[in-house]
Amino acid sequence: MEQNLVIGVDIGGQTAKCGVVDARGTVICQTVIRSDQHEAAEPFIAELAVALKRIVKEAGVEGRIRGIGVGAPNANYYTGDIENAVNLSWGRSGTIHFASLLKDAMDGIPVTLTNDANAAAMGEMTYGAARGMKNFIMITLGTGVGSGIVINGEVVYGHDGFAGELGHTTIVRHNGRLCNCGKTGCLETYCSAIGVARTAREWLDMSDTPSVLRSLENITSKDVYEAAKEGDELARKVFDFTGTLLGEAFADFIQFSAPEAIVLFGGLARSKEFLTEPIERAMNANVLPLWRGKVKLVYSSLKESDAAILGASALAW
Fold first, then answer.
1. What is the largest CA-CA distance in the chain?
2. CA–CA dist 232, 219 (Å, integer)
3. How far is CA 311 from CA 61, 86, 218, 260, in A?
4. What is the C-alpha to C-alpha distance for residues 292 and 169, in angstroms, rounded to an integer?
5. Which of 63, 89, 95, 294 is deepest in the core (most CB within 10 A)?
6. Backbone torsion region of residue 224, taken as left when φ is above 0, otherwise alpha when ψ lies between -120 and 50, otherwise beta
7. Over the stretch 93-113, which tens digit does the pLDDT of each residue have?
8. Which of the 8 DSSP states describes residue 150?
9. pLDDT digits (tens, 9 = 90+) for 166-176
10. Each residue of 95-122: b (16+ CB within 10 Å) or e?
C-alpha cells in the first residue's frame, strides 16, 4: 500500500523553500523559488503552485499528497491568513487569505498555515531536537527573531492565533533601535542576523578598534562570524553582546513557561561557538534560582537544508 505524503513550504523574505516529505521526515524532492519578486500575493501563489506541482510530478507521487503545511511570517493558524507581514514584499498591508488561495491553486489539497517559528517548533518536536519534549521554546534567529512556544505538547496560539511574538519583546528600554514593527528596542533589532550586522557597523563608527570588518562596505552577520573565527576582537565582542541580550531575554521567557529547553534554529544559530557561553551566562544570572542551571540550551538537530521544509510539513500530518 502506497504511503501518504505531505508538502512543506517555508516562506521567508527572499525565498520560499518547498519539499515533498514522507512520514519518517525524509525530503523526497525539493525546490526553492523567489518570494520577493511580486507586489501582490496572487501572482506569488500562482508561481508557488506551479513549483509544488512540478516537484510532485518529479517525485512521481501524483495523487498521494494528503496535505500542505506552510510556515510564513505573521501567519494565523486559526484563519489561514497572513496579516501585515512587513518582511514580505506582497504582504505588507491588509489580510491575505493565503491558505484558501493556495488550496484552490492546488486543486483542493488541504493547506495548514502557521507562523514560521511555530512551524519550526512543530518540526523539532516531530523530527528533531525536541522529540519527546512537551515544554520548550523555539527561537529562530534569522532575518528576524521568531518564536514558537510549546506547553504540555501543544503550540501556544493564543485567542487570536498570534501568540508567541517574543522577538518583539523589549530588550532595550531607553533609546532602543526602531523595529520594522514600529516599536523601539525589540529583541529582533539586536539579535537577528540584521541586528548583529547593525551592531558591528555602529561599533566600528563609534571606535577606532582595529578590525578586518573596516574594509567591508556592506557588512553581514556572516562577515561578522567569519571575522570572529579569525580572532577579530570587535567581532567577538559583537557576539558576546548579542548572546548576553539573548540570555537576558531567555531568563524572562523561562519565568513565563518553565520550559525543559530553549531550542535555537536559523542562520545566526550557526554561530553557536560564540553565542552559547554568553547566552548561558546571562540566562542563569538573570533567572530565578528555581530554574538556574535547569533549562537546556540546544540547537536544531535537523539537516540544515531540510529543516525549514520539515518544520512546515509537520503541520500537514
1. 68
2. 14
3. 21, 22, 31, 20
4. 22
5. 89
6. alpha
7. 789 999 999 999 999 999 999
8. E
9. 999 999 999 99
10. ebebbebbbebbeebebbbbbbbbbbbb
Amino acid at the residue 62: E
Q: Where are the beta strands (DSSP E) in the chain?
A: 5-11, 15-21, 27-34, 65-72, 82-83, 95-96, 111-115, 136-141, 145-151, 154-155, 261-265, 296-299
Distance of alpha carbon 18 from alpha carbon 3, whole angstroms: 20
Give CA torsion, residues 172, 177, 179, 185, to 10 deg.
10
pLDDT band at 180 (very low <50, low <70, confident <90, very high): confident
Instruction: Please give the backbone phi and psi of residue 87, each rounded to the nearest 5 degrees, phi first.
Output: -90, 0
Please report where in the chains the cell 571575522 appears, as a residue: 227
Q: Per-residue pLDDT tens for 182-210?
A: 999 999 999 999 999 999 999 999 999 99
How sure is the predictor about 2, in pLDDT bands with cuts at 50, 70 and 90? low
Question: Distance of CA 127 to CAs 19, 25, 54, 237, Å?
Answer: 15, 6, 25, 34
Residue holding cell 506547553? 151
CA atoms within a 13 Å half-sphere pointing along the CA-CB vector of 306: 20
